[in-house]
Amino acid sequence: MVDSAQIAVSPMFDGVEPPAEPPADFVAEPPADFGAEGWSQDCSLPSEEELKQAEQIRKECAVQIGGLKDSPRDVVGDIRISRFLRFHGGDVDKATKSFGDFLAWREREKIDELRKDVIDLPPKQFIKWLESVMSPFSPILVPGFHETEEGHYVVFFAPGYFKAHEFVHKRPECQPLETDLLIMRVAMEYVMKQVDDNSYKKQKMCYSIKLIDAEHLGRDSLPIFVPQLRKLAQENLGNAMNFYCEQDILTLVVNAPWTVRFIMSFVSAFMTPRQLNRIKVFSNTVATEAQAAQEFLRAIGPESTFPSSLGGDRAPEDIPFYQPMLFENVRRVQQWMLRRTPGITCPKLGEESLSTGPPESESEMPAGTPEEPIHLMIESPRASRRSWFCACAAE
Questions:
Q1: Residue 32 belongs to domain with CATH number
Q2: Can you say whether residue 357 is alpha, beta or left, with left for phi > 0 and alpha for psi between -120 and 50 degrees?
Q3: Is residue 292 part of a domain?
Q4: Does 314 reside within a domain?
Q5: What is the mean pLDDT of residues 111-137?
Q6: Which DSSP helix (H) or strand (E) runs through 146?
């Protein structure tokens, strides 16, 4: 559980710089037009048929639901169950099994206890809580970075500033690496709750948008080359993709160096084609891609939404955890290293460890075959900025 007393105001990599130009196979041919008839239905509320199917799934999973400490709307409500249905193409049997597995995992990992003190915090208070428990070397992750007119919830990432080695090795004894896994689970729960609440408020299926500014990615060691982080991801990414399905309508990667294909080759093993189709990657070296990226960004929000690295004019100090970085604050780092109690705990941690085991060679390549090119999808927004997000959701 969370130490609520810590909710108060608080003041990704060793490598060679990538070549100036990405390899020719960095992107694939542009896909078909966004405007296929009927795509926008995925942003609609559950149909009568889906509501009946959701009720059927609830009945089939009554035992698992009964085992939960709590049964909130964002966990067992019609919209959440409909996400499982849509993820599995309307197959009730597959959706039932997936939802049942999710509930069993949720009870086993004590997710309800983990989130109970923070799940209903307003966005600014949640950010304050995050800062109170996270490592100053954590990757930059900003829930609530922006919300679109349609109600889609934007989460901002800047992995190029992630100090992966320091994140693993510079930490107090009371806060092992698995503690950060708990923090990430709470963050995923919080985003899912915001998306669910927005869906009821807007009377449509709302999603999150993951906005990734990949500037400087590859300047230090890629996190997939740090054994402890790679193992943690291998053990947990699959569950995250399955149990938080249909959370994202878009993952937009901007300023991407060619090294992003190493990341993609790793994470694609944990994703379905439906999820992969919602990832749009734009290079930082090709003028036409930079222009297309700006079209996507303008569809998300005005220039005042984004920092200068994304073509906006938002002041860096207005973005949590971003310039100056937390690890640049000497006092913040000292306080972190002197910590004696973790900011977040879970009953499971007292029973078994999630530690990554003996260290591997840091030169070892990650799972998969990163030397094989990843063909990434590049698209242009449709004419109507208000409707193209929903087109993404139906792919």
A1: 3.40.525
A2: left
A3: yes
A4: yes
A5: 94
A6: strand 140-147
Summarize pLDDT for 336-393 with one digit per residue, the tens: 999 999 888 765 544 333 333 333 333 333 333 333 333 333 334 444 444 445 555 5
Give the pLDDT confidence of 289-331 residue by residue, as tens digits.
888 999 999 999 999 999 999 999 999 999 999 988 999 999 9
Residue 200 CA to residue 206 CA, distance in Å, equals 9
β 248-256/279-283 pair status: parallel
**Whole-structure pTM over 0.90, yes or no?**
no
377 within a domain of the structure (yes/no) = yes
Amino acid at 112: D
Cβ atoms of 340 and 172 closer than 8 Å:
yes
Per-residue 3-state assignment (H helix, E strand, C coil) for 375-388: CECCCCCCCCCCCH
**Rg of the chain, C-alpha, whole Å:** 21
Q: Which residues in 278-304 are b (16+ Cβ under 10 Å) and which e?
A: bbbbbbbbbeebeebbbebbbbbbeee
DSSP string, 157-180: EEGGG--HHHHHHS--TTS-HHHH
Q: Which two tokens stand for residue 151?
A: 């109600």
DSSP assignments along 222-268, one per residue: -GGGSHHHHHHHHHHHHHHHHHTTT-EEEEEEEEE-TTHHHHHHHHG
